[in-house]
From TrEMBL:
PANTHER family: CELL SHAPE-DETERMINING PROTEIN MREB. SUPFAM superfamilies: Actin-like ATPase domain (SSF53067). This is Actin-like ATPase domain-containing protein.
Amino acid sequence: MAARRPDIVVGIDVGQTCSGVAYSIGPDWHHPRTINLWPGSHGNIKADKVATAVGYSREKDGVQAWGFECMFGDAKLEVREQFKLTLDHDYEDYRGFESHHARRWYGDYLKCLYAEIVKFFNDSVPKWHSLHVEYSFSTPTTWTNPAMIASIEGLIKAAGFTSTPRQTVRMGLTEAEAAAIDACKTKYASDDAGGGTTDVNLLKVKSLDDDQVELEPLDHVEGVPVGSTLIDYRMAEHIVQRLEPIADYLDGDLYCLAEEMLTGKFQTIKHSFPKPLVDQYWLDVKGLAGAQSFPDVGIKDSRMSIARETLKGIFDHQVSQIFELIDGRLLALQEEFFNLQVSYIILSGGLGSSPYLYDQLKRRYEKNEGFASNNTALIRIMRVLEPQLAVVRGLVRERTQQLGKGPSAGQDVYKTRHCRNSYGVAVREPYNFAKHGMVSTIKGNDGREWVENCIE
């Protein structure tokens, strides 16, 4: 039986720091719109993404807050955040958390997210409960194990996203593939640098009309655990080392104090870097009463100085890993398509909006300072207009194009895909009844019987 055509497509990108939700309503399928009013987001202030955080009561069991509601420093809450990467059994969480912890938090977060999505559509779409809704989730490029992706899909369904027969879940695109759809150009490498991962996708645009796009992958999608949150982690380590000699003067756990120092002002500094051109940045030291000074650890009037070179070094560590990822993909492309010119590297994702990353990529790939290949002679570095929304909008656009407008037939964005896993090589084997049984064979020039398409 054919699946019911959805009336609404909802794209969901659960990120390491924030999550986005976009949607489109058939049969005309307008351009993706985002849900931008979330609980705790300061009244009517719009926020295109909601914090990926869930808060548990310290006094009783159960979820007490989620998203922006966890951002108010409530001492009665135990807040869990930045758990997306930890869903992978192979990921080592520096905080000591394991996959089973992350799966609990992820499931609880999804339940809250689902309830808010339902509330939004109840308030804005007539007869919402009678419509067929398809939820399209992205997957990180670093998740290559099909069994793991299937288990995550199970958590999504258990959170309520298939709680009625009119709701279905789809996990068809990686974050890099979805972001690429939102940033189509001639031939390009799409670099989705987010909060927790950075993905590279080499694509060729085969057709680009007003409403239809067809992309041809030139290589498999690849990602590494590099992103904006890793900058926060490295800076937190630096701050804790600075605070340790004065721990007796501080009220609170050093790591918690460091994380508090990285909210607000530091995020502004990080997103603006390399500007302003100052030698020192100053952060308020949480847990230090009054206006105390400790010259030996660089604290004056309860503010810690952060050297510009320290922040630059943390950025450079992340940027160098992104260089390594892009270099590898471009060199592999050169081996297979020597004369094919890459026109653009398109940046998306949270870290993709970083002016520093943008400048460093331009120097390396446009100006050939440290890298050159036959494929990148005319390359340009560009950014999507709203890099943090590229994934979620790409999810919706891919599916609505596939469905088609009104009675018109749609078409796939990706008509071919490159598998990220190797399942073996198809070979020809000498026929052996004990092994092959009753199968079709062919006779070789040597007179022997052979079985084709055996997997080795």
